[in-house]
Amino acid sequence: MTSIKRLCLTSALESQSKILAMGSVVRDRVREKMKVELAEQVYAVFAERGLENVTAQQAAQAIGISRATFFRYFSSKEDAVVTALRSMTAHFSDMASSMSSHPGESLLELLRRSFESAVVFAEQDPVAMQGRIELVRSTPALRASWQESRREQQVALAQALSPFCANQRLAETAALLGLALYDHALIRWVGTAGSTLREILDEAFDFAAMIDDNWAEKR
Question: For residue range 6-16, what is the model confidence (pLDDT) as tens digits?
């Protein structure tokens, strides 16, 4: 085989490899999108009827898929719920990593902005969102899965915040604080009539800022 033919063959193989890789990425994205859509539909069924009162097969039938399809995407009912929760809580880390700090903005203010998409999501259908939070709070297995997903989000959020912090340790602390304030606001929102998640979350961050200001004044 001549060098020219070898070069052409190598180039063709590399091109084919890139095409196959791109096809794999597209398939993964389509599968992930489908998984999230199915999870959100299944979650609505569980929120309405109760997780313990519905089998995986019944949930699958309720949204028009087979039991086999359900378990092709989810390992359990809890897995479906956690998948939906992760999509609903938005991607705090993605939001934070895409932001730039405004002039004169504090880290707390930037951190609050990273939760804005989650607040907007809740405003679109507050009743459904509150029902889903209640489902997690009332189901021990879901609470454990929720805490695990929060730990994963904390790591990702800390990484996104690291450019805005003096060191990684402070970024991790900021991520922990932000998620704690957000979860506190969620719980208060579910149990408080007449208040929006936005109002309660802003109040929580304002209080944290006030503590920070008072501490700075005393030093």
Answer: 555 566 556 66
* pTM higher than 0.85: no
End-to-end, the C-alpha distance of the chain in Å comes to 78
Model confidence pLDDT, tens digit, residues 94-107: 666 666 767 778 88
